[in-house]
Amino acid sequence: MRLSVIVPTANEAPNIEQLVNRVAGACKDLDAEIIFVDDSSDNTPEVICRAATAASLPVRLIHRAEPNGTLSGAVVGGLQSSSADYCLVMAGDLQHPPEMIPVLLAELEGSGNDVALASRYCGPGSSAYGLANLYRRIVSGSASLLTRCLFPSKLGDCSDPLTGFFALRRSTVDYDRLRPGGFKILLEILGRHRLAISEVPFIFEKRAAGTSKAGVRAGMGFLHQLLHLRVGRAGLFAGVGAVGAVLNLLIMGLLLAAGSHYVLAAIVAAELTIVSNFLMQERLVFGATLHTANSRTTRFLYSFGFNNAEALLRLPILMFAVETHMINSVIAQGITLLAAFTLRYLYHSKVVYRSRQATPAAATALGSRREPLVPRAQGDPVV
Questions:
Q1: Crossing angle for the helix pair 216-257 and 134-150, nearest 10 degrees?
Q2: What was the pLDDT predicted at 19?
Q3: CATH of domain 3-214+360-365
Q4: pTM above 0.85?
Q5: Can you tell me the distance from the alpha carbon of 133 to that of 266, in angstroms, rounded to the nearest whole number?
Q6: Which long-range contacts (C-beta less than 8 Å, at least 24 apart) are formed by 301-306?
Q7: pLDDT of the residue at 292
Q8: CA angle, 170 as apex, 166 and 174 as ends, to 5°?
Q9: Where in the chain is the domain with CATH 3.90.550.10?
């Protein structure tokens, strides 16, 4: 197989038939297939199956009962299921014109580069026309500029690192490096690899049907992804730890001011910040790996138990520093918190959030079967 066209979908039923027909027309001279990775809660899988029966190229469907990693996770699942030399990623809402598929593939093969992306911002022939309004265009352009500034060596010359329309050599991606989450999978790939990039201008079309998935939540996810790529998981863990340490010292100081003994104040501050740190690291540090980790209850018990044991070990050190060396109790508490950081990070990354072996979703070949095709749960055959 020369090319897999990977289309992540979430409730895009009205666009599927036209998309399949246009992709098939664009790929009529190519050895190509379409892989839909579907996270829908409507009848999109059934519509994909019906469209596949009349398609002139192979169509495969991965329906994910649990949409882990949102759109980025869907794309990675499609890439991993492909055996083609090249993969092309595009949206299921027809804002990425399928007629650009052979153009991107020709650019990728002709340039010898690792990635060929369709850019909304690379001069004549490019446009972000399809964005809903001026506000969305300003936000999109600003986000691209911010990304390029944060990654000057890798993305400084890339005009549109946030595009969702791109082709790549499948062999260039190390999937173990990826931490898919949110909507910007190209940023995840480029941020974790050093790849040669080509650009092709294109006009970002208006959505044909359905509703956009962009919003405040997607924007916050993008900012989190940027931070994760820029400072790494350890950096984010340190950030959460720093916030927790300030909160710990603030609580302890308030309790001391209220007349509490420093040992009781240290214990109360530790318990409250153990819980707050857990909630922050779930959201900000390890969020992209939660779908492969143990249950939330198990993670909390592991984290709470370890942090309490670690706090008990720190307590005699704190008492020794205060009683023997006459160090201020708040300063001594801060020193012990800093000293315990590395141990906490290693334990949480290797034990609390260790990855369980997950069974990848199976891609069902739909082909040109004529009987009704109704997808079941994730991994089940389509019958």
A1: 60
A2: 95
A3: 3.90.550.10
A4: no
A5: 52
A6: 302/351, 302/352, 303/274, 303/278, 303/348, 303/352, 304/274, 304/275, 304/278, 306/344, 306/347, 306/348, 306/351, 306/352
A7: 76
A8: 105
A9: 3-214+360-365
DSSP string, 49-114: HHHHHT-SS-EEEEE-SS-TTHHHHHHHHHHHH--SSEEEE--SSS-S-GGGHHHHHHHHHHH--S
User: pLDDT of 328-353, one tens digit each?
Assistant: 887 887 787 777 777 888 888 889 98
Average pLDDT, the chain: 84
Residue 41: burial class (beta carbons within 10 Å; 0-12, 13-18, 19+): exposed
Residue 239: what are its φ and ψ, rounded to 5°? -65, -45
Residue 184: name the closest of 166, 164, 204 by CA: 164
Q: What are phi and psi of 117, to 5 degrees?
A: -115, 150
Q: What's the order of all strands across the beta sheet hosting 32-38?
A: 197-201, 115-119, 166-169, 86-89, 3-9, 32-38, 59-63, 364-365
pLDDT at 69: 57
> For position 112, what pLDDT does the model report?
92
Cα diameter, the chain: 83
Tally of CB atoms within 10 A around 355 = 10
Confidence of residue 383 (pLDDT cuts 50, 70, 90): very low
Grade residue 367 by pLDDT with cuts at 50, 70 and 90: low
